Amino acid sequence: MIQLGPLALRWYGFLIALGVLIGSNWTLHEAKKRGLDTDKLLDMTLWLVIAGLIGARLVYVLTSPSAYFGPGGNPLSAFAIWQGGGSIHGGILGIFIAVWIYSRIYNLNMWSYLDVLTPVGALGVIGGRIGNFMNGSDTTGRVTGWPVGFTWPEPGTQTFGAVGRFIFGENLWANAPQVVVNGQPAYGPVHLTQGYGVVIGIILIFILLWAFRRSRAPGFVWWQFVLWYSVLRSVLEETFRNNPLSWNLYLSEGIDAPGIGVLTLTQLVSIPLILVSVYMLLTLNPDAPDKRDTLSRKARGR
To answer: What does pTM read for this prediction?
Structure first.
């Protein structure tokens, strides 16, 4: 984490914010190309941030209730968002609801605005997963015997020489995760699921580049994002992540095993999201323009 006086800023939050900032420039660029009202887009930004934070925290708490409401838990810490803990799916849901409400109030095409917000999501995924890696103990993978296994340095190991210590702090690995298998500490290589998450974000960027060129039909880019984020995360990340299984279909982990487990709660949630996304994309005509955006553009003399 980054220590600024009494304030401890976690890498996760800092790098997500950086990703959102970079993604916002792409969002504004696409909004202008599509004739959307960029003033309205900027006006809703604060509400989107608030809704995203609330959604991310709420879903995280609901899916990890024992830490807050179980034995020894502190219910009030559920509101301590600065301590870390958030769900990307929850953040997406919060933003979706905020855009829906805002669009209803100002008579905007909700799908067109959701389309141009997707770059923020893709770059936020990349920043978040790099931040998870910097925090050390976030989103760890299962123990694996595969060659891709990553062995975390011992906690307290110094970082990358003088330059690294200046940038990252004295002990980047102070929070190196303790891997647990069947309730017992395990020592050995693990899947670097934070890195897998970064790869997912990069793939999403290429998908969005294609989708923006492919169609201006409202909702096309948004549902492509939801579809492929759900598929990629379920397959490339959650399969190897050290999460409890909500439905134990298959589990094999250890230094002589692949380090695979299905199905986690995230994978179960992704199934209806994938089905809804496919249905919505099948009902869309990708060659249809957004008539409301065209009229809006003409009204502004563009």
So the answer is: 0.85
Domain assignment of residue 193, yes or no: yes
Pairing status of strand 260-264 against strand 179-181: unpaired
Q: Decide if 97 is inside a domain.
A: no
Q: Is residue 81 part of a domain?
A: no
**Which amino acid would we find at residue 119?**
P
Instruction: Quickly list DSSP for 156-204.
Output: T---SHHHHHHHH-S-GGGG---EEETTEEE-S-B--HHHHHHHHHHHH
45 inside domain: no
Please give the chain's pLDDT, 302 residues, in tens.
556 565 666 677 778 888 888 999 999 999 999 999 999 999 998 899 899 989 988 988 887 777 788 777 788 888 877 666 778 889 899 999 999 999 999 999 999 999 999 999 999 899 888 887 876 666 788 989 999 998 876 655 555 555 555 555 555 555 555 665 555 555 678 899 999 999 999 999 999 999 999 999 999 999 999 999 999 999 999 999 988 899 999 999 888 899 999 999 999 999 999 999 999 999 988 776 665 554 444 444 44
User: CB atoms < 10 A from the CB of 148, how many?
Assistant: 14
Let me know the angle formed at the C-alpha of 37 by 279 and 40, rounded to the nearest 5 degrees: 95
129 is in an annotated binding site: yes
* Residue 10 C-beta-side C-alpha neighbours within 13 Å: 21
d(CA 242, CA 29): 38
Residue 276 lies in domain? 2-37+108-299
Total domain count, the chain: 1
